[in-house]
């Protein structure tokens, strides 16, 4: 009888230690999950803020202001418009004779 009681006592102690270990691990995992959820909420908030900033930077007024200030661009008017025409260069007599001789 004493042997059975000792075996049962050892089984109960081992079971209790196992239960304490499992509870500790469960709390640790729950804490990590809670931190991950907090990080997720923080990242979602930051993402939303960055999306707003991106839309704000891409407005046509902002782009026009940057073009004027940094690129020194200005609105086009007929008074400052320059038209460029392209005319093909005239072949020179010596170059055409050299090409005919090479063929």
Give a structural overview.
The chain has helices at 2-57, 60-69, 93-102. By secondary structure, the chain is an all-alpha fold. The protein has a domain at 2-73. The longest helix has 56 residues, at 2-57. The chain is rod-shaped and about 125 Å long. The termini are far apart. It is a single-pass type II membrane protein.
In short:
InterPro entries: Cell_div_FtsL (IPR011922). With 103 residues, this protein is mainly alpha-helical.
Number of DSSP helices? 3
Q: Structural class given helices, strands, pairing?
A: mainly alpha
| Secondary-structure element string | HHH
Helix content: over 70%
Straight-line N-to-C gap:
118 Å
Percent of residues in beta strands = under 5%
Computed Rg: 41 Å
Mean pLDDT, to the nearest integer, reads: 87
Give a short account of the largest sheet.
none
Low-confidence stretches at least 5 residues in length (pLDDT < 50)?
none
Which descriptor suits the 3D outline? Answer: rod-shaped
Family: Belongs to the FtsL family.
Protein name: Cell division protein FtsL
Subunit structure: Part of a complex composed of FtsB, FtsL and FtsQ.
Membrane topology: Single-pass type II membrane protein
Short key terms for the protein model shown above:
mainly alpha, cell inner membrane, transmembrane, Cell division protein FtsL, rod-shaped
């Amino acid at each position: 009888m004493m042997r059975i009681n000792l075996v049962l006592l050892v089984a109960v102690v081992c079971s209790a230690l196992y239960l304490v270990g499992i509870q500790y691990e469960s709390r640790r995992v729950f804490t990590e999950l809670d931190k991950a959820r907090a990080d997720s909420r923080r990242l979602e908030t930051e993402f939303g803020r960055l999306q707003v900033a991106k839309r704000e930077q891409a407005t046509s007024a902002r782009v026009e202001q940057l073009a004027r200030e940094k690129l020194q661009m200005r609105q086009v008017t007929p008074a400052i418009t320059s038209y460029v025409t392209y005319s093909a260069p005239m072949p020179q007599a010596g170059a055409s004779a050299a090409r005919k001789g090479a063929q």
